[in-house]
Structure formats: structure tokens, C-alpha cells
Queue: 3 jobs
Job 1
Amino acid sequence: MKIVTEFPRKVVEHPDLGIVMPDGCRLSVRAWIPEDAEADPVPVILEHLPYRKRDGTTARDNLTHPYFAGHGYACLRVDMRGNGDSEGLMEDEYSEQELQDACDVIAWAAAQPWCNGRVGMMGISWGGFNALQVAAMQPDALKAIVTLCSTDDRYADDIHYKGGLLLNENQGWGATMLAYSSRSPDPAIVGERWRDMWLERLENEPFLPALWLSHQHRDAYWKRGSVCEDFSRIKAATLAIGGWGDAYKNAVSRLVTGITNAPAKGIVGPWIHKYPHFAVPKPAIGFLQEALRWWDRWLKGADTGVENDPAMRLYLMDSVPPRDWYEERPGRWIAESNWPSPAIGKQTLTLYPGGTLAIGDAVPLGVAVSTPQDCGMAGGEYCAIWLGPELPGDQRVDDEKSVCFDGPVLDADLDVVGGPVLRMKVSADRPVAMVAVRLCDVQPDGASTRITYGVMNLCHRASREFPQAVVPGEVMDVSLRLDDVAYSVKPGHRLRVAVSSTYWPLVWPSPEPVTLTLHEAALDLPVRTSGMGGDEWRFEEPEGATPWATETIRKASNRREVTRDPATGLVTLSIEDDFGDARDLDHGLENGTVARETWTIDPADPLSASGATHWTETLGRGDWQLRTETFTSMRSDAEFFHLEGRIDAFEGARVVFSRQFSNKIKRDLI
């Protein structure tokens, strides 16, 4: 990344610019504003998050916001109510209060003498979600958004449920937020009130995994904030960005297709859940320059030509050997002027008895699928985001436990661009059952790389909102859409479709072992035939402002391993992400984090499934030293989920707060 230190406008940073909400709650804002903005007003760019501007997102904030400000924008990085150095309490993700606060900040900013009255909103993940949701509320001053790694559908395409199945990330991310929100504000910002604010937060902190698990179908809770319910409400120009290694890749296509009352463009690169000017796998892109083109056009009226950009710019990844981490993915950028693209056709491959996959008419299959409960251990993380290795590795370990159908050796490139669909006639022998499908690239040496995948709760075959139990033995017509991808399978390789009745630890298992029967199946592949002659788009090289200046107290490290207990048969995935400990060289705040997860199952018993997390968060400066230890655990029987949690808070070595959570939640066709 090229570090830029000289900008057209001189910038003044405000570490704690307070904005008071209509109910009197003060939000703490880190702001970067051009020095001469009152004489020459500028647009505002807002990022509204719970992740702590003082020590949580500081590394990326320092690269990003001073850069925009130096090019003539006032950047506001707001600590959400109840987090960081802001007052108040947090209720839930994307609450009515959160979104209203964002609208009130927008109105406040637009009225300032240093603002030209036009506002943009941006963010990755949580900030990308609320940017979309606030845009749907249509605050007057909001004219453009840049949403990254976010979704339009809070139920079907977030960290809670996928294909109507419970994602273990529901507990995993809930545990993350329990830890994140347990941290104190900084006394250097809030003064002597810090302890009262901290204890009030701890006393009122929601146990989010249980809240989310209490809504197992696509009810009104999930519809609120799902902008796919009515894309027409979005009037702000929308640039949607995702990564093929991220969980939220599918939303980009839907946003570009669904938003018709405003300009909408999409970019999807090879990246995991990170901003694309410093994301991996490389190549990173000049995201800040690309965002400036967007802001300059819609917030300043400059002729940057963004409205003439292709509807979708996608990184077409080349075949590579399977690895659970890539520093770089070979491939090229392709560009589609229209989306959906007329250049993408459909190639149908039929699944045949004997495990073959070929072009031809459908035939009766009669293939039984009954996989062990630990099938899926090579799947990697649902949302690759932390220290790695988190990507899906060699799929042969899962292929051996699945029913596989292999195509012929390819004699030419096959560019898969979009979401493949497996159409099945399938039955199950239990009233609650799931199916998982992986599309793999089988290398000449037999190694298997996961191209894309999909999972489905068969009880949701007709409706996410009103699911129905499977009638054992009844043949169901099911279409399972796999995740979007852009992937070029090379000559000498084969395609493989792998079907399983389990996929642990990505999703929680069915309450009983299930045998599926595939009666008939065909795969519709979205195949792109144009643009075979090389790069069709080039981005600028990444730039950024001066990085965060810190001193490392403890280095970061990562451990991820699968163990099998020979006595009990239990298989356990253990993960430890030690994010290290660092000291800010400006204000001296020290912060450290260690996250631990274990996911355990008996391959023969779905009711043996369990998950446990333990997070340690530390904050300090001199004699002021705080620590929180947060724990969650989850198991189930045939009728109920059982969730437990705990927060322990320390000043020095002294326990100053402890709180327990316990929830028993009925399973509802999951």
C-alpha cells in the first residue's frame, strides 16, 4: 500500500466531538474535518459502529478517514450508543434506536457550517448493514452510500441462519459482541464517569445469541432492517462491495439488481471480510480512490464517470490447489455492463448413477445420502475475518464422507460466474432434515478445492416464514442455490458435486440422523463465455493515510486444530485467536484480546453437538487496568436448545462484576 501524507486540504482531527441526541444521550465522535471547511464547506462521510473508535477500528480508521478528509470531506466515526465512549445502552444489532441515532447524526451534520448539506454513509459489515438500512429510511441529506460485506436480508444471508439452518456463527458472533460490549469507556475521554458507565453497560448487556435464536423463522423481527423487503425505498446512490472469501458475497448481485430508484454498482474481489485496500487474498485495490470517485460524483457533483462504470466488476479466480489460507489468488478482473449479464448462459449437468456428472437427460438415481455428523470439518469459517487460517482446505476429507458425482476431464476453460443451482427430487426419512451441496474443482492430482456451496433446511423448501415438517418418504422438488462465485476451472480438471446430509461445524445438526434419497438431480451452472482475452478492468493500486502508531506489548498468534478422542469418538475443532496486546503511542491506551472457541460432536450422534467460547478483553493505562472474561456455551436435545453465558469483570485482580445468563429455547423445525 502506498502511504499518502500530503493532501489538497489540511485536516484537523477531533478525538471526541460530542453529538447530543434528541433524548439527551451524548455520542462520542472521532472527526476529521478540513481546516478551512467553514469557509469552504464540504460533504460529510459517516461511519456508525459499536466497535470502538478509540482502540477497536483504529487501524483501518487511520488509513481511511484522514485520506477522505484530505480530499475535502468531513469524516465522522461515531461510537454507537452504549459502546466505546458514547453514553446510553445498546439493545440489539440494527435496533430502531441505532438507526434513528444515525438519522439524527446525519441531520446534525448537514446543518453544521462546515458541511455543504450533503452526506454519505459507509461501512463494512455492521456499518455496511446500517448504511443500507438508514438509506431505506431516506434521511433528506443522505445522497450516497458505500456498503461493504453487508446484506440486504437479515434472516437468510447474515450470521444467524443460512438456508433456514442455524449457523454456529449465531453463537460465535453473539459471543464476540458479549466480549466487545463488555469493555469500558476511556477515562481520558469520559472522565470520572467511566466506572458508572461501564457497570451500567455490564448490568444491561443483552445476551444476543439467545435473542437471535428465539426467532428461528423469517418473522417480523428479521424483516425489519432487511432492505430486500422493499428495494424501492433506497434513493441514495449505492456502491456495494464484497469478497469471494466473505460470507456476504451474494448480496452484491441482489443489491445491483434490486435497487432501481438510484444508481447501484457492484464490485466483488477475492477477499475475505476486510476493506479491499488492505484485504487478503491479494490483489488489493485502490478502494479509497474508487470511493472518492463515488463520493465526488454524488456528494460534490463532479464528473467522475462512475455512472458509466460497469454494473458489476468481478474478480475471476483461477483454479488453485486447495489451501486454508492464500496470500494471493491468481485471476483477472472482468466487467459486466449490465446485470444480470447476457454474456452468462446456463449449462446443465445431470447427476447419474455411479457417481458421474455429465450433460444429458435426467434419469432415476435412487442414491442414499447419510453422512457422519462431522462431515464439514474442511469447510473453514463461515465468515473468514480473523487471523487465519480460515478458508476451506482440501475437500477430500469431506468428499470421502459425502456422495460425490464427478464430471469428465475438461479440455477448455470453464468460467463459472454467478450462483449454481442444484435441482433435486429428494426424500428424507425424518421430519427434520437438511442437505448440503458443494461444487468442487478436482485437480489432476486428486486434490479437491471448494468452488462454492449451499445448505438447506428441507423444512424450508416452500417458505422461510412458514416452514413445514418433512413427510418421511415423500419426494420433494427442491432447488438449492449455491453461493455466488467467479471461478475459472482449468483444462485437465474435473467438476465434482458433493452431497451430504450434515455440515458441521458450519450449521447445527438435525435432531436425528437422517438418510436422504436422491431420486433425480441436475446442476444448472452459470457459465460466462465472453472476455477470454485477458483483463477487462484495472483498478488503481491501493493507497492509505498514515498508519496507526502503536507499540506491540504481546504479539498476535493463531491456533486451529481438529482432534479426535479415541475413547469417546468425539471430534473437536479448537480455535484460539490471540490478537495480541498493543499500546497507542498517542494517548497511551493499551488493549488486548484473546478469543477461544471449541466445537465438538460425535460423528454418530447429532445430539452430542456443543459449542463453547471464552473471550478475554483487557484495557489499561498506567495503574488503571481492567479485564473482562466472557463465556458462552450451547448444546441441544431433541426438543430444546440450551444456552449459557457469563461475564466476569475485573479492576486489577479484583472482581467488580459477575453476571450469568441461562436460556432454554424450543427447537422449531431446526
Note: Residues 549-666 form one domain.
Job 2
Amino acid sequence: MNHAPDTRDAHAEATSPSYLSALVSNALHSHRAGQLDAAAPLYEEALTINPIHVEALHYFGVLQHQRRNHAAAASLLDNALRLAPTDAICWSNRGLVAAALAHPEEAVRCYLQALQLQPDFADARNNLGVTLQAQGQLEAAVHQYQQALALDPSMADACLNLGTALSKLERYDEALACYEQALALDPHSAEAHFNAGNALTAKGDSVAAIERFRRAIELRPGFAKAHINLGSATGKLGNYAEAEQQYRLAVAINPNPTNLVCLGGSLAAQAKVDEEMVFYRHALQIDPNYVDAHQNLAWALLKRGDYAEGWASYAKRWRPVDYAAIAVEGVQEWHGEPLEGRSILLVGDQGFGDQLQFLRYARTLEQLGATVDVCVREPLVPLAQTAPGVRRAWSGNAEGRYDFWVPLMSVPSCVGTELSTIPADVPYVSADASKIDAWRVRVDEAAGTRLKVGLVWAGSPTFGNDRYRSMSFADLAPLGEAEDIAWFSLQKGPAQAQLADAPVGFQPFDFTANLTDFTETAALVMNLDLVIAVDTGVAHLSGALGKPVWVLLPFNSDWRWLEHRSDSPWYPTMRLFRQSTLGDWAPVMANVVDALRSEQV
């Protein structure tokens, strides 16, 4: 009679301690070699044989964490810790899993437990620093990284993390020293070069940052973030074509909304409006709520004169932190509801020029039956108080008892402004009569009977496109060819110092020390025949006062000036002079000189 084979010896061998030990050893060997698919079934077999094998539980948990199966990893590590509660390494790994599960307080508790068991555990200190940094506890994170490096000066990761925390604290020189230390430990660290580039960018050294980003890309081809930051750094130097190239490389690697919007922005800087909109729309297909895409698309649409879609997209421009900064607590935001007999607060957003441009809407809302107050930046309050429709202008935190509030720049969307319905009655602000009289004496004494022309050649250096929006005073030199003109500087800020090098024969009268606020500037402008300015708050002020103003625009001009036009539907007394080539002011100035001669005929 035949009998089945006897398998008892084979089973005994498969469950023997030596077999189990070899199984776990092989699993660990494959795991450490990065062969997760080979290691996983070995851990599983070991745990089938012995479900309470601490080492298998621990490192199978680590493997699951590496596979992003964080819940499974937590369960395995918790089982291991119940069996071996004094295993500092397991506690530290459990902290990593807690952090991955967005449980930062639990992660901190795990790392502290690991450090209580093993105070010289440098990895646990570094990991604790990462969690503290993610919670915004930067000083505490710096301390942990420093402690980790004191225990193990060879920890390149801790050097990088310390540098990042110091950068967030704006201690850039210290951060750069950390990145150099990291590179001494690992000369091929793309991350160290990338982070150094970020610190140099924050310091304003775009040239040095570019070198670092290029090196990061050499070390790690396909480093999309480095391509993005390299594009941004070259863009800051005005090289938008190079920025476009870098952004295209980043989009090819990772076409996420951020990268798509960056690429669109580089095209906008080159006045390629049709092309830029494609990338904003693509970004919105991926994330319909991506605010930067809405804002940039809005600017492109408005520049094209498509106000219906443009204002609708512009209404979605808010990041939560920016919106919270101007929102009026306890008051409903206005979206176009009836205003008859209601009160509304207009809250100024963005810069002086923007607020001056949109103050005109106070009269529009008053005509709809509202009582209108405005909250604007402090230097604009006296002028805003003169705007028709404004009951009260003030500055500070937007608050009070109103039926509605609305950002100033959202009003056109709420009232359905089209190009043909822009409220363009000027003036809609006025200068103080006594100040006008006081300035008349000084201006007439200086100019006599000559044509009186004010000049502004530069805006704020912090403006994103200031490299092309602003000029140097030397660029205005051709104006000296025009005869019988008295020039007056209206230039404030760092560019005012350029007057020291003004050539003989073209030296404007400079009363800017007495232009202590917008009311003084307005009074001086009211005594001039013409203002010639780049795109700044003074250009808007002159237009709002109803004074003749010629605005000199770069090829990549702002949305509000539309395209190709020499006039502005926003300001009837304004004339626009546009570059035909980005950065080339010479033809613009030639046209201005010709126009001045025509004015004098």
C-alpha cells in the first residue's frame, strides 16, 4: 500500500530558528540594497512563521513607509514597539511614519522617546528638527540640527536642514555656510547647490544664484525645481527668453500648475499674450482653484480688452492669506447685490496707482444708491476724501458697521464694466486750493512763460517688471533738444539721485524735498502744463486730476494700458508712448520729442 510522503522534517526545517534567522537576514540584505520587491515577501514569510518577530515587524514597517503605505507601517511599528519598547531606532522610525501621516505632535513624542533612550542619537535629533520646522518652530529646529551635527559632524542632511531653517529665519550668510559644509561632505549634492541658489536669490544676488542652479541641474538632470528657480533668477535680470526656456524644461518634466503659470508669466513678460493664456488655461484644467493662474489669465484677458471674462477671472485671484488681510470681519462681501439705501466700504488693495485708478468707482456706487466709505493707504487718504461719492476716507484695519464691503479692484467685476462703460469722468480727485496757490508762485518764478513739464522716470525698484518699466534719467536726454520748456522733477525714491549727473542744458527744477505727500504732488501737478511719466502712481494721479499726461510704456506693458493703443479709456487726458522693442527707449523718446514740438507750434 502506498503512503503519502512524510513532510514533518521539512516543516520542522522551515520553522526552525536558523531558517527564520536566515530569512530575516536575507530580507534585510535585499532591503538595504533597495530591492523592496525582493525584501517584502521575505518579511511576510518571516512574520507568517513568527508574527511577533520584532526585527521583521520593525523593518517591514519601514519598508511599508518607503512604499508610502503609512497606515500599514504604523501598525507594524506599533506592534514592534509593544514587544521592544526600548528600541530607540524603532521609536525614531515611528516618528517618521507619524510625520508622514500628518501627526506632528505624535512624531515629536516618538523622537523625544528615542532621545530619552539614546541621547546621542543624531538621526533622531535631525528628524525632530524636520518636524519642528514643519510646524514653524524654526529656532527650536535650528537647535536640534545643531545638536545633531555636534553628535555627528558628517551628517550632510543635517547641514542641509540647518541651512534651510536659517534661510527661513533670513540668516542667509549662516545658511550659505551650512550649504558649503554639506558640499564639503558631499561635493555632488544637487540639493546643496539648489538651496544655496535660493539663499543667494533671497540676498538679491541673482548672478551667483544662477551659477548654483545650473550646477544643481548638471548634478541632477531632470531637477524641475532647479529649472524653475533658474528661470526666475534669469527673469529677474531681465532675460525673459532664457527664463522661458528653463520653464519649458520644467514643464516637460513636471507639468504642474505652478510650472505652467511660471511659463505663462515668462511669455507675458515678452508680450506674447496669445501664448501665455494657453498655459494658464492648462493649469486651471488641472486645478480649477489655482489662484495664480486665475490672476495671470485675468491680466491677459484684460490686456486684450476682454473685460467680461477678464473681471470674472480676476475675482478669483485671492490667496487665503491675502484675502484675510483685507476682509472686514462680520460684514458681507458685495458681489453686485442692490445698494439702494445700503452702506458699503471700499477697501484699497494693491499699490498707490491701483487705488488711485479705482477710486472713481465710489461715484458709481453712490449713483446706485449706496453710502460709500473708502479705506485706503494712509498717504492717499486726503485725496480719496475729495473723490465724488466718498462720504469718508480713512486708513488702518478695515472694520466698522456696513452692509457690505468690497475690494476696490473687484468693483468693475461687480458692476459689469466693459471698455465702453468705464467711468472716465475726470477729474475725480482734486488738490487743495491753498496748496495750488502756494505752488503757483514757485512754479511761475522758476519757469516764467515757458511750457511747464513734470518728469517721472522710475518707479519702485521692488516692482517685478521694474527693470523694463523704469528708465534712467539719462534715457530722457533727448528731451533736452526741445526748446522753451521748463522741466520739473516729480521723481521720488532712489532714482532721484540721478539728477546729480544731469547734463548742462537739461537740468529740471527739483522741488521733490517739498513733495511730502500726494496732496503736495497733486498741487504741483495742477501748476504744470504736462506730465511725462513712466507707469507709476504719479501717472495715475495726473490722469485722475484731469491733467495732460504722457505715459512711457515698456513693450511688456501692464494690462490696464491694453494693446497697441495710444490713448487710455481710463484717462481721457492721457497719451501713451509704447516701446516696439523691449528695453529700447530711444524710439519712444524720439516720438515724445516730436510730440512736444507739435505742442509748441
Note: Residues 1-8 have pLDDT under 50 and may be disordered.
Job 3
Amino acid sequence: MKRNILFLLWIFCFSQFANGQYLVPTLDKTTNKYGYKEKDKIEWSLPPIYKSAHHFLGNLAIVDDGEYKFMIDLHGNKVSPNFKNIQSSSGNEPYVCQGLDGNYNMYDAKFQPICKTSYQYMSYFSGFNVLSFQSEGLYGLMDLEGNVLIPPVYKKLSLEDCYYPCGWKRCKKDGIDHKLFSDAFVLAQNKEGKYGIVTLNNEVIVPFTYNDLYKVAWKGAKKAYKETIKPYLLSAKKKELDLRIREVQMRSVAKNKELAMTYPTDLPVVEKTIVKKTKNGFAFFKANKQVGKTYQSIDSYAKCCIINSNGKYGIADPLGTEVVSCKYDNISIWNIGMGDDVLLAEKQGKYSLFHADGTKLSTKDCEMIFLPTNSVGVAIKDGQYWLIDFKGNIVSQHGYDNIDNYSTDYRIYAEMLGYKTELSPDGKEISPIVKQVFDEAYNMSLSNNAQEKYNKYMLCTSLDPNNKEGYRALSLNNIGAMFEDLGDVDKAMEYYEQARNLGDETARKNIKRIKFDRTINALQQVGNALQQVAQTIDTSGSYTTLLQSSGNYDTSFNDNYDVSTGGNSNKLSYEFWKQQYDRWERNAKSCYEALTNTGYKTKKNGQDTGGSAAGSWGTASFSGMKMNLRKAQKEMRETRAKARKDGHNIPQSNYETINVSY
């Protein structure tokens, strides 16, 4: 019965639902309140003034102002009294509401009470056709017009599907399908605490003689099948009851639909927010009324606006709300052509990324963030290069000495400690550096390269500090094997135990073997030559792990792993500044080629496609790319100036001064 009713309801109320489906409840992050917008639109159709808001159904929606719940129409007009709670099934059945006095009743679409009296509790009962209600602590059932089907004489009521307890083979043999059981029986507990099963018109099917739910649901139903369940399911009175409940529901839905049609069905007209030049600068206006402050300049983009006040830059949303205050030296769209929703902000030589809604994408500022190429970008943080995706998220597992994302084959290459690897766009190493180091150590001769072999294995432990890739445990076990071969079993045991504690099974077996050998035999003397080799290995050096407490990685090593730029002063090398200058030069070249349609390529579905100039970029994207070109050129000039202070003269590139005009 329920399936048929649901299908009819869908056909019946679809046109009503369609009217309100394009107003979507949306959270305003500035006020932390909900309002309504048309799907994929920026402007508010209904202002964000609600603590919570539901989707529109039947041209009405439930909202909460923080104190009360009530209903509004598509134009935001309040159409119901205040309630403590409102329950709606699909928008066309009656509303079940809890009044301010705590009592419940059913209401039609004009919010007139349906039941003559209110009840302690009321709720839809496992579907849309009947409701449970509570009076004086006991429960009963009623239809959607308030007619009592089961009087309030039970402690508990729940809808029970007796099909499986009765046995599907037996039911099938008797011509009874599963559909006949739907909404047919109610499991009930009487005042004495005994359980039984009744029909929707309170006819007892399984007597109230059972002490728990399981027994009455399975044993009771199975036992009563032949005597009461089967005759009832095949009887005319069940068909009459089903038809009566369905007719009541359809009358109720039809009445509510007719009443709801008196509310507005058109969406509210929305006045757009625009930027206008004023006597003192630029400002946002809506309906010829200024919104917010006046700024020196406002650069409008699809998802945000870059604002300038007193020479400092900030971010506003397209409606004129300032989401990032004007305190940055410069702000520009960072991922032009790849979403235009990430912005690069610079303040006192530090860089950070923001989402278009003003959310900062990284908690720690960077020394430099380069413009993205090949759909990924690079940032320098704590002296290391990190890979970031076009959304501004750091994706590399740790920092590198350098990352090159400018290759013509769209590949990304990284370097660290003299080792090279290729990175996937999500930051994973194609040929892990830690594996390269491990393989080198493994293949080294112990007799000729004991110290270097040891150092390589120790480097592996630093590159895999949490044993995520398993190389820390492998390396510790192999160091133990080195010392065992060299005759220092005590030192070997130390490393075996560290590897075992990381879950290495080979190390566990090695420890077990050594303990067994010690128990059976006295420790044999090892040749003086091998002992001397073992003693020459320097194990005093400390190897700082790459994983810091902050979650970032460091590549500082003592002794043989010094990665500092060298020298006894704070001056940086020519190579360092030239690398920075070349990277910004490639950024400028990429922007120039994109703007002039020369050599610029993008990839779509794995195929190369030509770039485009002003005609197909659109005004906002074209101006944004020009801004990025100027940004790269500014950084080139500043990099050469900083290099000169350190005593280095970097030749000027043509891309530092090149210009594009349309």
C-alpha cells in the first residue's frame, strides 16, 4: 500500500515541488546564518537571517530564527505561527507541529489545526498514511484527517513485517505476496507489559501473552499464521481498510495542494550588486544604494573582488562583503585559467594563498609561491621546495632541494640530496628517493665501503621517519646484519631490536636466532681484522629526522649531510639567486605566451590545445593574466636587486621588460 501511495504522491506533487527546488538554503560564512539563493547564483534571493533552513517543498520551507521554527513562502514571507518543532513528510501531507505549550497537532497548508484536541506527542508512523499519537502516556494511531484507528491504550507501538516469520514458501503457496504484509500489522505492548500484534483497526491478531519483542514478532506470528494472519490478509475487511486509509490520504493531500497553490509560485526578483566609480573612488552598489566601504580600486572577478584601500589590498565577495581586510602589499589571482578561485597575497616579503571566499589555505606563510604551470605550483617554505596543486593545497610528502614543473612533456621533477625523481601531480614519487638510497646501500660491498654503507642506511631511516614505506625498518635490520657480519653482535642486537619494534619480521627472527646461539654456544671470537673494521665505523653522528613536530619535513643532517648553502656569512650564492630568477622568468614567459597565443599550450582530455588571447580569455581572465605577468616581472627585478646586495650580477632577461597591450 505504501509503495502505491508514494508513487501517486510523486505524480501529484511534482509540479509543486518544482516551483521551489531552485531556491537552495545556503550558509553565509560572514554572518554564520542561512539564506536562500538560486542554484549556482551569487546574489541572495532571500537574505541570510536564519539559524537553520530547509529545502522548499510545496512552495513552503521550514526555517529557524534561533528561537522559534516557522514556515516561509518563496518570497520569504512568514506564513505560519511560531512552533517548537515542525515535521513535514513531502510538503503536501499535513504538517505535524509542536506548539509553544509543548503539545502536538496536525496542521493543513494554511496552518489550521486538523485535530480537535492536541496531544502529548505526534509523529508520522513509518510512512505517510497514518500517525502515532500519545495521550496520558499511552499510544494510538490516527489517519491524516484525525480519525482514530487504534485508541491510545498501548505503552509501545511499532510497524511489524510478519512476512519472513510466517515463511515465504508457505505464503507463496497460499497466494499471499510480500506486498500484502506492508503496513498490515502493528506490534504493541499493553498496559501490563505483554506483547501482541494488532491490525490498523486494532483487531488482535496475536494475543498479548508474550514477554519480549523477539518472541511475539517471530514465534507469535508464525504460530498465528494459519488461524488469524492468513484469513485477515485474504479478507475483504483488510481491502476496505486499506482503501479507506488511502482515500483519506488522497483527500488530505489534495486539500493541502489546493491551499498551497495560493502562495507565490514565482521566484523573487533579485537586484544585482555592481561596482561603480564614486567621487572618492570605487564602491559596491545594490539598487543604487552603496554597500560597504569606498575603495581606491576594485578589480572584479567571477568568484571574488580584489580591493585596495590606502595602498593595501584585501578580498571582498561579489556582493561587497569584505572577507580579507586590506593589509597586504599585493593580491592577485594565482590560478588564472584553472578555476580562478585561489589568490596569492604578499605581505612584507612573505606569501600566502587564499580561497576566493577568504579562507586562508595554509597556516604558515611561505618565502615564495610561484605561479602554477602544468596544473601544479611550487612554494618555498623553510628553505625547501613543496609541490602544491592548482587549488593551493600542499601535496608533496616532504620538501625538496628543487622542483621543476616547467618541462615540455608535462612531467614534474624533484631533487633532494643529489637524488632525482619524478613526481605525480598528487605529489607521489614515481621512483622513491628512499628506495634509490636503500638500493645503493644494499649493493655496496661491506669490506670496502662499510662506513658509506652505514651512512646510506641511516639516511634511509631519516627519509622514512615513520616507517610509512617500510624502509626505516629494513635499513635498521640491515645495519644490524652489517655489525653481525663485522663481529659486533651486541651492536647488531640494538639495531635488530629497533627494527623489530617497527614490525620487521626478519629482525624478530634474527634476534631469536642470536639468543638461541648465545644459549647453546659461547660467543666465538671474530678475526681482529673484521673487529678493527667495525670499530672504525663512526656511529656518533646524529641524523635529524625529516619529520618535525609541526608536521613539516626538514633535510638538515650532521656530518656528511650538510645541505646548507655554504660560506661563513649570511650571503647567498649566485646559484641560489640565479635559480630564483630563472623560475620567475619561466613564470613571465608562460604568462606572455598565454596572452599572445605563442607557444602556450594546455592539456584537455590528454590532448594539446592551443592557448588564447584576449578574444577568448574574457576581460577578467585576460586582465588577471596580465597582472600575473607584471607580478613575475616585479619579482625578477627584486631578485636581481637582492643578488646584487650579495655581490652577484644576474643578467637581465627580455621577459623582465616585455609588455602586452590589447
Note: Residues 574-656 form one domain.
